[in-house]
Amino acid sequence: MSYEKLTPPSDGETITVSRSGKLQVPDRPIIPMIDGDGIGPDISRASRRVIDAAVEKYFGGQKKIVWFQVFAGAAAIAKYNDVLPKDTLDAIKNHIVALKGPLTTPVGGGIRSLNVTLRQELDLYACVRPVRYFRGVGSPVKKPQLMDIVIYRENTEDVYAGIEWEKGTPEAQKIIQFLKTQMGVGKNLRDDAGIGIKPMSETGTKRLMRHAIRYAIKHKRTSITLVHKGNIMKYTEGAFRQWGYELAREEFGGVTVTEEEVFKNHGGTPPKGKIVIKDRIADSMFQQILLRPDEYDILATPNLNGDYLSDASAATVGGLGMAPGANMGDAYALFEATHGSAPKYADLDKVNPGSLLLSGVMMLEYMGWTKPAKAIVKGIQGAIKSKRVTYDLARQMKGATEVKTSEFAEEIVRHLP
Ligand code: NAD
Question: From the alpha carbon of 100, which atom of ligand 1 is closest?
Fold first, then answer.
């Protein structure tokens, strides 16, 4: 693989995927990393410091991540005069797994979000966001420790497909006329309406559900809830629900059971080792994450429902500063902070690296390096317990000392078991 302006590190090897789809991770895997805009460089430096320390501690130099700096956003404009150069996409495609800081999305001007472009270019169809509580972090709810869910959000369809026409344009007019005259619907559609299309397919839904069930099996999760608005939108959201159940029955019938069957055939107690498939209407799900979060495990959602639910769930455990995420396809996986680039804090060594670092933990788990992954989680727990934390955590904790991003990373390293 040749690049225009990148030279891959010579002391590492490339992750590959076997014919059966299994990830083959060498001892010195090359991992492309996009530091990102704004606070990105600060949190990327801190995250690499902790990940390297945990890997070194567990593998004693036998295994090591070889970081490969690649560019997107402002840094890419400076180097390539292009926000998302081909070099960057090629590097991620070639190395399969990558880590990414936040990127600033230019507002207006017809430029699509870089994050959306990356997801579409690499066909990263599942956005995976675990939400769990770290003891000691301030929370707006009484029992934040009950929250331990993973949101599995479809990434390529629904409103994210971005098929829209602006009010008053010939295209919007054409669609409105087409609907009224050819399709016999929308007689009350106003001429000054903007138009958006919400496609949701059987293919898109079933591959998301397949990914979610495989994740549930690997991580010993006990239920998957399909979250939809099928009572209102029958052929998109309602179909999402139906296709989700179908996929579970057709491809994973031996390891799944529906909630209905649990009550009908098993006296209300799920058979041991089976993953319960259930569904909830989206608005009710927002109540459930506040009132009974412990009854939920994985939530499989269309794009928009998942977008809202991710932030709302993260808020109950203390906010986005500690919420990790991954965008995954059949093999490619891009692990990324869930918050944005917070430009006002850029280069102040101030913000919390937790979101990106925990995304790094998900990456280590995906690579099968589970021991350093677990150690980092314990290190974070220890650092929070010591109350030497970044400003966002400090202001929610009694008696805490505010430390810089880099100092918080050192605190986590000190607490690695
Ligand atoms: P933001 O997440 O960047 O910041 C909002 C506020 O959250 C900040 O002012 C800060 O108070 C807090 N915050 C964010 N990250 C933090 C951290 N690590 N530690 C402590 N506090 C933190 O959201 P925004 O201001 O709406 O967006 C800024 C830019 O980021 C926009 O261009 C937006 O499009 C982009 N964005 C990118 C991503 C991504 O790359 N995945 C996600 C969301 C937003």
Answer: 40
